[in-house]
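This week, study the protein below.
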Amino acid sequence: MSRLRKGFFSTPVFILVLLGLVSVAAQKAGFTVHDLAYYLDSNLINFVRPGLKIRILSATIESSRITVRFRLTDPRDVPLDRDGAFTPGPVTTSFIAAYIPRGATQYTAYTTRTRISPLNNQAVLQATADSGGTYAKVADGEYTYTFRTTVPATFDPAATHTIGVYATRNLAEFELGTQVANGTYNFVPNGSAVRTVRDVVRTEACNKCHDPLAAHGGGARRNVELCVLCHTPQTTDDLTLNPADFRVMIHKIHMGEDLPSVKAGKPYKLENDDFSTVAFPNDVRNCE
């Protein structure tokens, strides 16, 4: 037995096993069994560095045009190429612009669209992400985005403005799926300090049950700070004509089966999702 053990430790077999264990340890570092990266070769993981971070660095409004400067990196803060030509995986970004009117507490979005409701053939307004804007590269991993949406000449330069972004990094070719990152940036266009913010519910509170909070099919929108930029009082669901105002929508979703209207036989829906069977696992008055 001692000779067998001695022989094992003195042969290349032990070295190979040891290297294998080190490889597995490196492969699993920073990932759990719920991550695709946990199951892939460590050399591939070290090359791709899966994950995505996005940070808005600044925002300005000049001649009615909104321009945002932002930075894309992997989890080690190494700059990423937005097109995916020089670093693994192209990154897609979508930007939202909104402001808090003077005397108000909720956002009004600049970036909007109209939809025709099939219920009454009338147009409804919805806050959404900008489309058709232009990108410019500033440095490795740093870009500007100029919105196609313009702000009216009468906009309030002293109001709190917020830029929201949701981004995805497509690593499907490496069998690592899609990585997601969200970000927001508050500023006052005239350069004064931000004094008015909307901070009612934290994402961390939602993620005590929703882990992670994710919506709209692909799940690229995961932060409450981002959600409230579109889910404003101005937004109506075209398929149901229900308000998509965050505070109304979230309370009704969590009430679910206990909504008086649902008990009376009218389902509560948003788009094609039916929330009539939702059962909140707590006292619904516990709204923290």
Remarks:
- The first strand starts at residue 53 and ends at 62.
- The longest helix spans residues 12-28.
